[in-house]
Amino acid sequence: MNRVTILGATLLLLLSASFQTQAQNTSNKLFENWNTGGCGYTDSSSFELRTPAHVDQIDVWYHWRGRESSVPYTISHDGQTIRTGTLYRAECDPNQEAWCVARGSVDIDAGPGAYMVRTERPRVCQNSASAGVGFVKVFGQRRRRGR
Predict the structure, then answer these.
(1) CATH for 28-142, among 3.10.450, 2.40.360, 2.60.40, 2.60.120?
(2) Is residue 135 within 8 Å of 87, Cβ to Cβ?
(3) Is the overall model pTM greater than 0.85, yes or no?
(4) Which residue blocks in the chain are alpha helix, DSSP H?
(5) Residues 73/59, Cβ–Cβ less than 8 Å
C-alpha cells in the first residue's frame, strides 16, 4: 500500500468511529410546547417527563436584550432545586433578532414528573397555546425503569 492509501484508510476508520459515537450520543426530544403564536413574557417554563430520562439539554424561547448573551436559570422538581446554571444565546429568528433560543447543557438523571425551569429575568415566550407556560424543549434519552 502506498502512503495515500494508508492515510485514506485511517481517515475512513476515524470518521466511522466518530459517526458511531455521535449516533450513540444523539439526544431525542423528550418534551416540547413551542408554537407560532405571539408571545407575552414569563420567567418560568414547565415540562413533564412520563418516564425516567437522562436530560442533556434545555432550550427556551427567549427575548434577549441588546448585547445580552447569557441568563442564569434553575430547574426544580417537587419544589426542590435540582440544577442551576446558565443558558446561552443560540439560534435566532431571522426576522426578529432579539428572539433566540436560550440553551443550556443540564446533564441530569430525572424521574417521571413535573419540572420547572426558571430564568433570572422574565423574558421567556408564553401564550395561551402554551397554557401560559414558557416555551421549552427538553432533549435527552429515555431510560428504562430500574436503571
Answers:
(1) 2.60.120
(2) no
(3) no
(4) 3-24
(5) no
Inter-residue contact 71 to 121 (CB < 8 Å)? yes
Please state which of the ranges 5-19, 30-44, 114-128, 130-144 shows the lowest mean pLDDT. 5-19
Q: Are 47 and 115 in contact (CB under 8 A)?
A: yes
Residue 106 C-alpha from the chain's centroid? 8
Contact yes or no for 134/44 (Cβ under 8 A)? yes
Smallest Cα–Cα separation from 75: which of 123, 114, 130? 114
Element (H, E) at 103: strand 96-110
Closest CA to 124 of 54, 80, 61: 61
DSSP state, residue 134: P
pLDDT tens-digit map of 32-85:
999 999 999 999 999 999 999 999 999 999 999 999 999 999 999 999 999 999
20, 13 Cβ separation under 8 angstroms: no
Name every residue whose Cβ is closer than 8 Å to that of residue 38 and which is 6 or more positions away in sequence.
127
